[in-house]
Amino acid sequence: EIFGEIQRKVPKKARRSDLFIAEASALELGDYVVHEEHGIGQFDGLHTLSISDIPHDCVKLLYHGGDKLFLPVENIELISRYGGESSNATLDRLGAIAWQARRAKVKKRLEEIADHLIEVAALRQIKTAPRFQADGGLYAEFAHRFLFTETNDQLRAIEDVLGDLASGKPMDRLICGDVGFGKTEVALRAAFVVAATGKQVAIVAPTTLLARQHYQNFLKRFESFGLSIGQLSRLVTGKQATQVKEDLKSGRLNIVIGTHALLAKTIAFKDLALVIVDEEQHFGVKQKERLKDLQQDIHVLTLTATPIPRTLQMALTGVRDMSIIATPPVDRLAIRTFITPFDPMVVEEALHRELNRGGQVFYVCPRIKDLDDVLKNLVKIASSLKIAVAHGQMPVKDLEQVMGDFAAHKYDILLSTNIIESGIDLPTVNTLFIHRSDLFGLSQLYQLRGRVGRSKTRAYAYLTIPTQQLLSKNALRRLEVMQTLDTLGAGFQLASHDMDIRGAGNLLGQEQSGHVREVGVELYQHMLEEAVEKARHTTQDDEKTPSSDVWSPQLNLGVAVLLPEDYVADLSVRLELYRRLAHLENQDEIDDFIKELVDRFGPYPDEVDNLLRIMSLKQLAKKARVSKVDVGQKGVVIKFHKDTFERPEKLLQFIQDQRGLAKIRPDQSLFFTRSWSTIPERFKGCSKLLEEIGAL
């Protein structure tokens, strides 16, 4: 009361998750792409074509037999990236039917998958679950104990989760937020809302160390709220474990935190209402199914920084709800990543630089048997430093002791296996070495890198590789991805790269799917979303099934349409802007885009103005089902999508009302006699005409 009300920023509009994928997959020269109508081609850059001395930016695509296709940038949404495994892709022939046949086959199979998914999701919708409302005063007091300012994304994720808990339907939400972006806070608040009503909450973590850290966090935050918290993992004695199990059964324990020991058949809960799964990529399919079997009406909240492809697919197709936390905490700096052959000089310099600024170092090895050799090397390089060793086969007490001592700053370096991969939060550790980084998987490397840089200090990660050894192609690609994804919040992009490298996987189980190879990763996503949407409408029977054909109106107004090189110099930025423009859905979004353009690049030239106006016209054309607009000196030719118009009688009346200034041509197109001498008149005239046709 004394300090007045907390000022909250108004959250910005949520960004669509598929746009994250689109931005993650920036096109590079030579990449394989998929055109909706013509199939697999090869991206050959942006080219400015001059048609009657008027410049127009086009994407150049190469097809089988050297055929070329130039796609105007305003129709760029017709192409999508093929995906990572393009080495076994073959280019399609322009105008051949093989592509349409392949696409139809995949579509049929996806519709079967979608029907099954919808069945599962519908069963979940039928079920009811207890409703939980955040108790005003108590909840506000709990939220106030959060020491940081929530980011917009964090607030939105918390809102989503509280909305799910209050809905009366079982929650199944994925919170995808980068390492250190505050997912745990979302879990804490959900746990508080449920536990405060006397129901039970279980938090499942993949490692004993992470379970221990959550336990300490929860104890600190829940202090003086009168809720009992227990932990169940290798770190508790047999006697304590028995006690925890009894308390869970009798209902004396409100919150339990543990490893997958919590999923054992011997554990019984009195009144379990919420399960929170942290770092879900570490759990096997069977363990996840076991979670679902615990009880049918349980709320499930999943936290992950790098969602494994199958989960990412399910969230993107709307079968699971997903909240993305993409904004980094204030003052957070990106981690500098170096991929380097092992060099004692580099190691020595990096160690001393970290210790001179009062920090500590993680040194991670892929296998326990490597620890001794690396320890000898480290002692040689820096004999004065205090080194602790930790791995998963150590006795529990020793591991606990080592971790506690390292956290208390009694050691300078922690030499360990990837036991520290999940959720260990030590803000003083800001340099990381990964020995033989070629032996780790992509999400492991990413998680390990996320163990440093958790404060306002700049962090450094050195991924070392052997000097005398050739690396496998996939290992090289993993390291390349790590090097390029050094921005904050790249976990989501990383999962889609992972989807490329490993294939997307079949949504319904462990069987890997070859469909992605047939049509490319992005189009596969899109087709699956469509199939799910179609199945949804079929089951509801309340609306007609949405049309699934993807098309993009072609507009030729005889004006220059491009982002000039002297306005946006970087080619990849231009491509990304074109791609974002193509996905804008209404005038408000175009206006926001214009503000961003001016903010980033300054006042824009006429060519950009034309491009933005073309985008507005494109939306009007789509609404009017017009597939082509050609403006010439004598007038304008308009062609309808698939040469059909839904209300032909109204269209005929409209043509008659034009008093001889409109006629139907033999090819089913319409010709309107107009004399628009200036560019603004063309835009204004086309806009009016398309609005009138759209209103029929």
What features would you describe in this structure?
The protein is an alpha/beta fold and 696 residues long. The chain has four domains: 25-126, Thrombin, subunit H (Beta Barrel), CATH 2.40.10; 136-325, P-loop containing nucleotide triphosphate hydrolases (Rossmann fold); 336-487, Rossmann fold, CATH 3.40.50; 554-694, Aspartate Aminotransferase, domain 1. 41% of the residues lie in helices and 18% in strands. It is built from 22 helices and 23 strands. The chain has a seven-stranded parallel beta sheet, with helices on both faces. Strands 13-18-17-14-16-15 form a six-stranded parallel beta sheet, with helices on both faces. The protein has a five-stranded antiparallel beta sheet with strand order 4-3-2-1-5, with helices on one face. Strand 3 and strand 4 (68-72) form a beta hairpin. The protein is globular, with a radius of gyration of 29 Å. The model is unreliable at 5-25, 506-513 and 542-546 (pLDDT under 50).
Straight-line distance between termini: 58 Å
The overall pLDDT, averaged over residues, is 81
What profile does the largest beta sheet have?
7 strands, parallel
Q: Round the Cα radius of gyration to an integer and report it.
A: 29 Å
Strand content: 15-25%
Provide the spatial order of strands within the biggest beta sheet.
Answer: 8-9-7-10-11-6-12
Q: Please state the structural category.
A: alpha/beta
Number of strands: 23
CATH level-1 class of the largest domain: Alpha Beta
Supply the CATH architecture of the largest domain.
Answer: 3-Layer(aba) Sandwich
CATH topology of the largest domain: Rossmann fold
Number of helices: 22
Poorly predicted runs of 5 or more residues: 5-25, 506-513, 542-546
The rough form would be described as globular
Into which percent range does the helicity of residues fall? Answer: 40-55%
**Can you tell me the number of structural domains?**
4
